[in-house]
Here is the input.
Amino acid sequence: MSDVTLLLSVIKRGDTRAASQLLPLVYDELRKLAAKKMSDERPDQTLQATALVHEAFVRRVNVDQPQEWNSRGHFFAAAAEAMRRILVENARRKRRLKHGGEWERDDVELLEIQAPEPREDLIALDAALDRLALEDPAAAQLVQLRYFARLTLAEAAEALGISPRTADRTWAFAKAWLHRELS
Here is the structure.
C-alpha cells in the first residue's frame, strides 16, 4: 500500500494531521495536472494553477466529511473531477452579466498578438459529458480521467478497474460520441 493510500485511509478515520501530510505527497502531481489543464484554457483566464490545486484538494480532502478512497488512482480521479467542476464554475461565473459577461478584456500592449481560441468550449464539453454519463457512465468516467486528469489509457483502465482492451473500446466509443455531440 502506498503512502498516499495509507494517508487517505487515515483521513477517512478523521485524523486531521493526515491531511496536512498528504498534500506534500500529491502536490507536485496535482500541480502538473492543473498546469497542463490551465494551458488549454483561454489566455485571459485569471485562475492560477496553484489556486486550482488548492481548491481541488480542499474539496476532496474534507476531514469533517471523510470520503472513502479505494486507491491513489481513485483519489486523483476525484481530484480531476474537482478541477473540472472548478473550471466550469469559473467559466459560468465569467459569463454572467454581473461579472462582465458580454465584455472582453483587451490588454493594450497585446492587441496585435492574436492568441488562438481554445479547441473546445468547456461548458459545452461539460454538458456533453453529463449527457454521456446518462448513456454510458463508464465512458464518461474514462473521458474525465483521460482529459481532465491526463492519465494514460492504461492508468485510466487501472483506476476504473477494467482491462486495457475494454478501456480502448470504451475510449473509441466516447471519442466518437463526443465528436458527434460537439459538432
